[in-house]
Amino acid sequence: MGKRPPPFSQILWRTSRVNKYKILKILGVGGLVVCFAVCLYAWRNLNYDYTGQKFMEKEGVRLGFKEKTYWLEGEREIYYLEGPDNGPELVLLHGQMVDSKDYHKVLPELSKHFHVFAPDYYGHGKSSKKAGLYNIKTIGDDLASFIKERVKATAILSGHSSGALITAYVAAFHPDQVKGIVLEDGPFFSTEKGRAEDTFSYIDFKNINDYLTNKPNMTYFEYSVKNNPMKMFFNKEGKDHWSQIVAEPALKKFKKDPSQLPVIWYYPPELGINRLLQITANQQDGTGDYDLQFGKSFYDFSFFSGLDQEAILRQIKCPTFVLHVAPPKETAPSYYTSEGWLISAMDEQDAHRVKELIEGSTLIEGFQSMHDIHDDLPKEYVKTLLDFKQSLNIKSE
C-alpha cells in the first residue's frame, strides 16, 4: 500500500516554513543592498574632491600640469600651475578664499585648447602672505609682471569674483599684456563703500574683521560656523535649523580633530554644505592657506587703493565677455533677500553697467549658478571660453 499523504496542517506548516525562509532571504539580500548603497553614498561624500587637491595629486600630473613659483623683489612670490602648451595663453584668476585648484573641474578640458597658467594671488594658496600686499594695485601690477616674465605672451585673462576685479585692473593698466578678458561674476560696484554694507558677502568680511579684532577664544572655523550668514536661509519661523543641521554636527566632528575641516558624511556635494565648510580653511587656524587679513581688506575697503571701479572699467579697451549668474532660486526673481541683502555678486543693473562701461563688451547672463560658474557649470564655462577664443579669431592648435 502507498504512503498516506501528510495531514493538511503539516502541508501548511511546511509551506509557511519555506515562505519564512524566502522572506528572510529576501530581507537579508535587501538589507545588504541598502547597506552597500549607504556605504557607497557615504564614501562618495567623504572622498569628494571639494578643494581640488586630489586633482593635482593624480589627474593634474597625468595631464602635464606643473607647479612653479615666480619670485619678485622684496621676497614676494607667486605660486602657479602651468599646463601643456596646447594653444593660446590663458591665465585663470581664482576667487577669494580659494586658490588655483578651484579650477580643477575645467582644467582637463581647457588644457586641450589653451596653454593654461593658474596663479595663486597674494594671501591665497602658496603665494606670499603679507597684509601690505593685499590691494588691487600691488596684486595687479605683480600679475602683469608675471605675465610678461613667465607667460611671455599677451594672454587671455579669465577672473572669477575678486579675480574678476583684478583681471579688470590688469586689462586697464597693463593693456600690452592682455589679449582679451572674461569677467566671471565679478562683484563690481557691490564692493564699494556705501553699497557693500548691504551685501551678503560683507557679513563674511565683518565676521573676519571682528574675529581678528576681538580675538575670541576659539578658532575662526568655530566662529564662522556660529555666525555664518547662510543661516538666514535655514532658520525659518524662529526655529534654529542651522545649528541642528550644520553647526552642531560640524563642530562636534571638528573638536575631535581641529587640524582637519569636517566633512559630514550624509551631505552630498551637490547640496554645498561640505563645500561651505571647506572654504573656511585659513592659515590662522592652520587648516588652510587663506590669510584672513585679505578678507579684512574688503571690510575696510583698503583693497581698492583708492581706485574707482567705474574709471577702471572705462579704461578697458580689449575684447571682453562679462558673465553674470541668474537670480538665486532662494530669492528669484530678485538678486536680493526679502530683507534687502544682495546675495549675488551683482544685480541686473550692475551687470549692464559693466557692459556699458567696457566699450564693445559682451554680456552673457542667465548662468544657473550661485556664483562659481566654472565649478557649478564646468561644461558651460569651457564652452564660453572656447567661444571667446573663437571671437578673437585665434586658430586651434
From TrEMBL:
Top-level division of the source organism's lineage: Bacteria
Annotated AB hydrolase-1 domain residues: 90-193
SUPFAM superfamilies documented for this protein: alpha/beta-Hydrolases
GO MF entries: hydrolase activity
Pfam family, one: Abhydrolase_1
Leader sequence residues: none
Keyword terms: Hydrolase, Membrane, Transmembrane, Transmembrane helix
Transmembrane segments: 21-43
PANTHER family: ALPHA/BETA-HYDROLASES SUPERFAMILY PROTEIN
Record's protein name: Alpha/beta hydrolase
Native source organism of the sequence: Facklamia lactis
